[in-house]
Structure formats: structure tokens, C-alpha cells
Amino acid sequence: MKRAPQSSSPSSSPSNPRLALFVLFAGCSSGGPQSILDPAGPQAQQIEDLWWLFFTICTLVYVIVIAFLAVPIWRRHQGHSDSADRPLQITVGVATAATILILFVLAGASYSTGRALSELPTGDALIIRVTGRQWWWEITYPSATPSDTFTTANELHIPVGRAVVLELDSADVIHSFWAPNLTGKRDLIPGRPTSLAFRSDRPGTFRAQCAELCGVQHALMAMPVIADPPEAFEAWLSHQRSSAAQPQTDEQRRGQQIFLSRQCASCHRIQGTSAGATNGPDLTHIASRGTLAAGTLPNTREHLADWIRDPQQIKPGNKMPPVPLATEELDALLAYLLTLR
What we know:
With 341 residues, the protein is of the alpha+beta class. It folds into 3 domains: 39-117; 126-240, Cupredoxins -  blue copper proteins (Immunoglobulin-like, Sandwich), CATH 2.60.40.420; 250-337, Cupredoxins -  blue copper proteins (Immunoglobulin-like), CATH 2.60.40.420. Helices cover 37% and strands 17% of the residues. The chain has 8 helices and 12 strands. A hairpin with a 7-residue loop joins strand 6 (175-178) and strand 7 (186-188). The model is unreliable at 1-15 and 19-29 (pLDDT under 50).
């Protein structure tokens, strides 16, 4: 799948003094598809600003504390005596007052950031329903025209420059949606729908992750969030609304029959065929996605074959059973699935 290039941001520039300070103390860089230090929208920018405020204040406090520890050690090593109590009492009093002041400053900054995250204008927002499942993401793009509503899985596309409102829910246990380049975390609680609004101001591919321990494969519940330019997003939207491609060769037709006659059709849906189950991800355009099994594997023929043969070996505990197929049957099924772009 072709990915939109990621543009640079002020926080990822090598000459940025904040980045230099962070690298000096933490040994990390701020770039990447899953980083609060590479914000792509206003919500993420607010969170990054708060992070830098906390980091700067905590670093200064750490340096001051170390200095107050080091000076008496050095003085004692030089043979000086520190028997005066009044300077010590004054120091403790000043430190206590400073600590209280710092706590109020950080609490106020946190409160202000929390309010700012909810102030994004959403008058023309794109509504997307996201349902967390063990351990994958179901994504529905509703439309006023029912026939234009479609469902996909494990890959979220959004338009650049337009607010997005995710309507979040869970089908089983508590999950949590977190795309740090774009916004903060929001829990998905069964029976308690919630929402999350954000905007991406530049194209790119960012990584979202379930941030709430939701079972044994919690770490393998991720998905790319792809911010497309408006024209590219509309083209993607139009394509996703179309039915699956029809098989063109005998092998592909046999693969479709295998899919429809085996247990595949009892769990998955392919638009334009008799397969309409919703227990597993919608496979109408599976070949167009960049990954398999919620970000676990690159979407290649070899990995798709491994996943069909024995998904429990790759992601133990998931709800897809192994599919026993002869080699020629598996080849035919793969030939069909790979046409579903």
C-alpha cells in the first residue's frame, strides 16, 4: 500500500533546543509513527506542550535536589562543618513552599490542557464508529445514505484538515484507543459508548494502540491511522463502498468457492457475496490493507498463508481457529483473497 510521506515538525528538527535537551537526558528521539513528541494535530500539540512543561520542571527539580545533596557531601569531604540549624530550616521551608507552588502549576496546566482537548470545533466533523474486540478493531463509516455505509477493520483512514469524531464502544472487555501523534487516550467500555474528537493537520501514517490491558494479546492490538489529503481520502472512501472484485481466473473462482463453503464464511463478510457474518473482520478489501491481525504481520501472501494455516501459533487465544486446507486449496484461496483490493 502506498503511504503518504510524513512531513517534519518543529519538535523533530535536530536544531530544536527542546529536542536536544530531551536527547541529552533521555537518549531518545521525538520522531516516529507513535510518539507524543511528533504531534500532527492541535490535540497532540497541546499534549506535547504539557509533556515538555512537566519534563522541564521535573528536570530542574532533579538537578536542584542533586545539587543540594552534592554540596554537603563536598563540604564534608573538604573538612567543613554544617552544624547551623537555621539555614537548614530556611532551606526546608523554601523547598516546601516551592514544592506546593510547583504542584499547583502542574495541576493547573493539566486542567487547562484537558479543557483545550475538548474545544476542537466539530461542526463538519467526519463521524467514524470504532468498536474494540479481542484483539482487533472494527471500523464503520456511517452515511446518511444507508447503502454508502461500510465496515472495515484494523486500518483507520481520516482526511487531513478535517475534524474527526470517533464513536467508541467495546464488544467484550475494556479497551483503550491511543494514537499519540494525534490525540490522547480514550477508554472503550462495554455498554458505555463515548467519543473522541481530533484532527490531523498533515498527511502521514501514525500508529494507534490499545492502551488498556485487555487480554493475553493486548500488545498485538494495533492499527495504522492514515491521514490522507482530502482528494485521496474521498477516492479511498468511494473504493471502500464498492463490492469486492469478482474472480477472473479458474483458480480465483475455486478460491471463492472454498471461502464460501468452508468455515471462513461463518465468521467473515465479503460485500457482493453470500458471506455476511460479522464475528471476524470484514474482508471485502483485505488485500488493500497494510497489515494482518491488527498490526501483527505485514500483509503479504506468505504471512496470509501462515495466518490461515494456524492463527493460534501467531496470536494465541484469538477467536480464529486453524483452517485445514490442502496445499492446492490454500493456493486457490490465497489467489482469491489477494484480488480483494
